[in-house]
């Protein structure tokens, strides 16, 4: 039997290395979304209350991309959420970092530089190999324990995620525990009533495995977004392909056509597909039935009839899980499908988890209350893997024999 130690198991006044995930959209070097900061601030605040000295490891972007920047600005944002000073050092495991770590006192918080700037953090390798990287070998001896609060990176076998638990005492933070518990509920909990999964977004390769792997626990699926259009195409409608200016449909259709058609045949009676779609017409929202339509423009949302139908389905559910948006909700004209369904979930007394990509952002953007959902997940890839029951290496390395 295995178990995971949490921060409840820590002795007070320790020097802790804490992995968080504050990776965020960045424009012109400025962070555009601070939701992850707010979540991790709760864990850090709790650690400070127990007089721990905290050094934080995090990443931003990936080498070669515009979002691959220093974490100096991140320290300021985190300090605002904590209402507590967060020191920053432009180094991760060199002399400057080690000096800053050595100077840590109980109640101090230090953010180390972007861990992906370190050789050995990437690529993904076996945890034992990652434990031998310079990052782990240098930092591990300077701390009493390691805390992983970065659930959204739990599917990555990177040094800062899987290396440290191999060589030192390791614990799960609050975000790690809460996200994992909520996101695995679709497979691990029994619900007294219908379980509905709302699937949208842009990636068929994410949606298809979810449908096939949770068929024994989910009663019905409501499809939208590009995923919904691709399934409509498989069902014989003249939608789900690229028009001028788009490149999202045809390559996914070519890659996944056989699987989509197989899933549609196997689960057709449990799949709810859009009956109408919305598009832009002279600057305004317009809608059309999928019956008899010929695709000549981009469809940007499910239509009002579909949104109302999906809202009725989730309102009659004991549990609802959401992965991906039903439309381009960032444009208010095409937010109706996503917001209508989210509002129905919020008004329903059901167990609910919303996540996948930027879907959770719609809750904040349109003034919904996170408290009306059982969990609003800020994880992407890890959320999808939890839904499908795939292994999360970042969780596995925290497990220990009882």
TrEMBL record:
Gene Ontology terms describing biological process: glycolytic process
Enzyme Commission designation: 2.7.2.3
Keywords from the UniProt entry: ATP-binding, Cytoplasm, Glycolysis, Kinase, Nucleotide-binding, Transferase
Principal subcellular localisation of the protein: cytoplasm
Residues reported to bind (2R)-3-phosphoglycerate: 36, 116, 156
GO molecular function, one term: ATP binding
Domain of life: Archaea
Gene Ontology cellular component annotations, sorted alphabetically: cytoplasm
Pfam families reported in the protein's UniProt record: PGK (PF00162)
Binding residues for substrate: 21-23, 36, 59-62, 116, 156
Quaternary structure annotation from Swiss-Prot or TrEMBL: Monomer.
Family listed: Belongs to the phosphoglycerate kinase family.
Name of protein: Phosphoglycerate kinase
Source organism per UniProt: Natribaculum luteum
Gene: pgk
């Amino acid at each position: 039997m295995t178990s995971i130690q949490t921060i409840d198991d820590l002795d007070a006044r320790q020097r802790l290395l804490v992995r968080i995930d504050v990776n965020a959209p960045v424009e012109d070097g400025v962070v555009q979304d601070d939701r992850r900061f707010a979540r991790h601030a709760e864990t850090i605040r709790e650690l400070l209350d127990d007089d721990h000295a905290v050094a934080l490891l995090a990443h931003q972007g990936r080498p070669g991309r515009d979002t691959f920047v220093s974490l100096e600005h991140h320290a300021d944002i985190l300090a605002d959420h904590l209402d507590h000073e967060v020191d920053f050092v432009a180094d991760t495991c060199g002399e400057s970092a080690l000096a800053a770590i050595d100077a840590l006192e109980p109640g101090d918080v230090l953010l180390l530089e972007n861990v992906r700037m370190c050789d050995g953090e990437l690529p993904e390798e076996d945890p034992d190999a990652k434990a031998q990287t310079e990052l782990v070998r240098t930092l591990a001896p300077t701390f009493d324990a390691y805390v992983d609060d970065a659930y959204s990176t739990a599917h990555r076998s990177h040094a800062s995620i899987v290396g440290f638990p191999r060589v030192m005492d390791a614990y799960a933070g609050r975000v790690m525990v809460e996200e994992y518990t909520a996101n695995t509920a679709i497979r691990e909990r029994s619900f007294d009533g219908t379980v509905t999964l709302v699937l949208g977004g842009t990636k068929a390769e994410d949606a298809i495995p979810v449908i096939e792997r949770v068929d024994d626990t989910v009663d019905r699926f409501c499809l939208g977004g590009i995923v919904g259009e691709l399934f409509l195409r498989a069902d014989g409608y003249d939608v789900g392909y690229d028009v001028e200016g788009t490149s999202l449909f045809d390559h996914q259709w070519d890659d996944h056509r056989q699987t989509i058609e197989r899933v549609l045949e196997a689960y057709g009676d449990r799949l709810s597909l859009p009956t109408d779609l919305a598009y832009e017409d002279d600057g305004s929202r317009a809608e059309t039935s999928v019956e008899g339509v010929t695709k000549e423009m981009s469809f940007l949302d499910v239509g009002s009839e579909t949104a109302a139908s999906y809202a009725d389905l989730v309102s009659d559910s004991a549990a609802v899980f959401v992965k991906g948006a039903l439309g381009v909700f960032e444009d208010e004209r095409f937010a109706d499908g996503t917001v209508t369904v989210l509002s129905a979930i919020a008004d329903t007394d059901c167990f609910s988890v919303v996540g996948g990509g930027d879907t959770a952002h719609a809750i904040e953007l349109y003034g919904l209350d996170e408290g009306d959902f059982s969990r609003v997940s800020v994880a992407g890839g890890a959320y999808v893997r939890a839904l499908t029951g795939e292994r999360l290496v970042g969780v596995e390395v925290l497990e220990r024999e009882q």
